[in-house]
Amino acid sequence: MTENPTRNPASDSTWQTTAEPTAQTTETFAPPSQPSRRVFRRSRTDRMLGGVCGGLAETLGVDPTLLRIATAALTVLGGGAGAVLYLVCWLVVPEADEN
Q1: What digits encode the pLDDT tens for the residues 39-57?
Q2: Residues near 78 by beta carbon (within 8 Å), at least 6 away in sequence
């Protein structure tokens, strides 16, 4: 691409460049593939109580122990908010399919 500097009418001290195409390209690109959709499900295999932390860890790609520690800390430091959130997820989030 060739760049031609042109003077910006808003300010004499500012320069901006405009790009001019030099050749036509005939490349065709495939449309982007559908991104893999991550679905939050409670784990059937990696569970201590209801499988919420195991399922969330599987969805996010992290260690479930980190999420269990975070849930315990949120429960202790957050006045029970972690336990309430865990129970809501246990009731609302469906269990993973059997594989």
Answers
A1: 888 988 888 899 999 999 9
A2: none
